[in-house]
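Practice problem: predict the structure.
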Amino acid sequence: MNTLNHVAIIMDGNGRWGLKKKSSRNYGHLEGIKTVEKVIEMSVKNKINFLTLYTFSTENWKRPKNEIDFLFDLIRKLLKKKLKTIIKQGVKINIIGQKSGLPRDIRKTVNNIEKKTFKNKRITINLALNYGSKEEILNATRSLFKKQNIKINEKTFTQNLYTKNMPDPEILIRTGGAKRLSNFLLWQLAYTEIFFIDKMWPDFNEKDFNNVIKKFYSIKRNFGKI
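Answer:
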């Protein structure tokens, strides 16, 4: 049977869902948080050790300012409101992406939550904030060139990525109907099983999640072999 340690998700379709339901993209982002909470619960239930959520990409800065402000306000309120619950549930929060480009108070909040959940082991949730995979790969390359007497190979390169010391995702889920990776975990997804879901993120539910996991366990994973 296949081993499942790490699920990555591109949570696409919030804005379109909000426009359809309430003529507001921000309403979709707000409702999408409920799906995030359900997926975390389902991941814990399925004993998944790592869950990586594409929260805000380096390209998302191109969106309207009012939407960006709403997204960051949602993030800051959610993390502060849920901190005690996160700690109590044994959830470890890890931020992947360019922290230096985030608003100062967001940096302070995420640094605090990373520190307070560092020893938690039930599940590690990677929030990809201000994340772009091409930039991650460039950063890893720069870091390696700065180091002396180090052999550059796949192992040392991987140890300079944001996801160092983590297994690569076995599953990638993308909701919203699009069939592309959108600059997300390009190195890490080399042998990941990819599931494109037509539903918008706020409509993604437990049955959808369990169907993906069931299909994953039925796949014969060859990794280049026969």
